[in-house]
Amino acid sequence: MISSRNRNRADWCPEMYSGKNLLINGCLSEFQRGNAGKDGFSADRWRIDGVSASLKDVSDVPKGYLQGCYLSKTSAGEMFFGQRIEAALSAQSAGENVTFSFELYDVIGIDKLEVVAYHTSAKDDWSTASVLFFSEQVADLASGRKSVVMPSLPDDVKHGLYVGLKATTSNAGSYKTTGLQLELGDQATRFVPDFPTINLAKCQRFYQYHNITEVRGFQSAGVIIHHPMMLPVELRALPAVTSTHTVIHRAAAVEIQALTKSEVIVSITKGTETSDCFVNGMTVSLDAEL
């Protein structure tokens, strides 16, 4: 007998947790929030701050990659592009040397690019100020693969680790990147992306976006109709739920609730009309990001 837990891809696929890259979606293939990103994210798992525009790039990606990300700032200042790594993965890097590598291309107007790393002070809790413990300037901004070694990471990375790029411009600037990798050791090895379905599943532990064409019910007036959503992957934590819908037919109310990390229910309260009720064009976002 197979339990519901064992049917979860994150549980039975060892690829969900194995592999040398501590970063998720380093190939920048998943953009569940849209090609321009939103809510402080660009590609899945990649946070942005101080960025004027972020956009999926497929036009002039370096050889060997399918797509990248364009990042720009239209005024003087700093912009960040990076990822928070959960404690279950970052803990193994405590006291170790790690190497961050990435493809850099089409740099315009960037005065300085730094690799930065922060840790938090409580397990997977980024609600308080994080601590900067590493910063190193990238010496050469010509297009190509770059790598930076971070020696002997502090013990506090066991609580959570942020690694990313900090770009500074005195006027306006932009750059593109792809193939981002963080691995144990002091050597950068060749970037190898996760298998596409595994990469998506890893992203969906933190964020899921669903389009639901129609939810229908045939109940008496005032009755609440519950429709369970089948999630492709159990989320990392109980998610925040955001939803939209285009049309409501003969329904008094619509509510979407996350009961557990793997159980989400769409509830429709039937209106007073005697015929069926339904909701069209529903979107559901489930956010369990760090």
Q: Could you characterize the architecture of this molecule?
A:
This protein is mainly beta and 290 residues long. Helices cover 6% and strands 44% of the residues. The chain is built from 3 helices and 17 strands. The strands form 4 sheets. A 5-stranded antiparallel β-sheet has the order 1-4-9-6-7. A hairpin with a 5-residue loop joins strand 15 and strand 16. It is elongated. The chain starts with 8 loop residues before the first helix and ends with a strand.
Total number of helices: 3
Helix content: under 10%
How much of the sequence is in beta strands? Answer: 35-45%
Characterize the largest beta sheet: strand count, sense, and whether it forms a barrel: 5 strands, antiparallel
Global morphology: elongated
Low-confidence stretches: 1-18
Rg over CA atoms, rounded to whole Å, is 22 Å
Structural class assignment: mainly beta
The run of helices and strands is HEEEEHEEEEEEHEEEEEEE
Mean pLDDT: 89
Distance between the termini: 34 Å
Strand order of the largest sheet: 1-4-9-6-7
Total strands: the figure is 17
